Amino acid sequence: MDLVELIKALAHENRLRMLNLLKEQDLCVCELRNIMNINQSNASRHLKKLKNAGLVEFYKEAQWVYYQFNQTKAEQHSFITELMEKEFTHHEQFQKDKDNLKLYNESEINCDRLDNTDLF
After folding, report:
1. Nearest-angstrom CA–CA distance, 34 and 7
2. Are 33 and 64 in contact (CB under 8 A)?
3. Phi and psi of 28, rounded to 5°?
4. Which among 24, 38, 78, 99 could bridge 42 via Cys, Cβ 3.0 to 4.6 Å?
5. How far is CA 18 from CA 62, 64, 108, in A?
6. Domains of the chain, with CATH numbers?
7. What is the pLDDT of residues 30-39, one digit of tens each?
8. pLDDT digits (tens, 9 = 90+) for 53-64
């Protein structure tokens, strides 16, 4: 992976927000869509760019595709880990996303019902 392409993948707020959430736990598109309050096509488009850059990996469980942060890629490029540890904690939107993730985890809602529900 070319370093320029990796940096381009990091060059959008929604992709950074996704990485911030995915470093906490694996999530599917419907969960990211709801937690971040973005539409599904937007979420999918950004996940594809992160996947192509090797920053996220995915696996299937039933009919859902779950995404996870690729820690190995972050370790290969120390600036990614430093960015996430130092800068993400000071960003208001990133903290709001984490608060929404916590609310989601505490709710009774799962992927089966999430597409028809707006939590936030």
Report:
1. 26
2. no
3. -95, 170
4. 38
5. 22, 17, 22
6. 3-105 (1.10.10.10)
7. 999 999 999 9
8. 999 999 999 889
